[in-house]
């Protein structure tokens, strides 16, 4: 596997982690301090930051330069969602978080990395995706 392809793929995945970090930031701002899910969202955001650190480290091991933000597309998506798709209550916030984790965090990531990573990088991505599946399970349990 060519390192440049691996680095480029990991960087796109890393941008997705930054996008998640910023989306959770917005969710956390919307939740009242007394909300039982607010602290869990802070914990999920910490996980995403840890994932970003692990991905950055792997990219550097491959002699690449890690991305430092969600990129232009991610910033535009965040901006648009803040204007047009802002959740009003906890249930809507949970639905948005589930959609973000499932669609962008897991499904798109699986397509992105398919046949584009070396074994060590793929193992790292699978570890991260497994943690994100745990997030989805938690979010769904809180929704019902």
Considering the chains and any ligands shown, give keywords for the structure.
144 residues, 0% strand, elongated, 81% helix, mainly alpha, Ferritin
Q: What is the fold's blueprint, element by element?
A:
Elements: H1 3-30, H2 36-61, H3 71-84, H4 90-113, H5 119-143
Helix pairs in contact: 1-2, 1-3, 1-4, 2-5, 4-5
InterPro entries: DUF2383 (IPR019052), Ferritin-like (IPR012347), Ferritin-like_SF (IPR009078)
Organism: Gracilibacillus oryzae
Domain DUF2383: 6-112
Describe the fold and architecture.
It is a single chain. This protein is an all-alpha fold. The chain has a single domain, classed as Ferritin. It contains five helices and no strands. Helix 2 runs antiparallel to helix 5. The longest helix has 28 residues, at 3-30. The termini are far apart. The model has no long low-confidence stretch (mean pLDDT 89).
């Amino acid at each position: 596997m060519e390192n440049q392809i691996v680095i480029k793929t990991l960087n796109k995945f890393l941008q997705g982690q930054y996008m998640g970090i910023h989306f959770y930031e917005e969710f956390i701002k919307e939740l009242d301090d007394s909300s039982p899910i607010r602290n869990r969202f802070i914990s999920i955001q910490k996980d995403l930051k840890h994932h970003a650190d692990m991905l950055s480290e792997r990219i550097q091991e491959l002699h690449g330069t890690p991305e430092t933000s969600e990129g232009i597309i991610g910033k535009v998506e965040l901006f648009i969602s803040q204007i047009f798709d802002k959740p009003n209550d906890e249930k809507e916030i949970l639905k948005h978080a589930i959609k973000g984790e499932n669609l962008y965090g897991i499904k798109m990531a699986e397509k992105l990395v398919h046949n584009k990573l070396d074994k060590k990088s793929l193992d790292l991505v699978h570890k991260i995706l497994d943690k994100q599946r745990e997030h989805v399970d938690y979010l769904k349990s809180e929704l019902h």
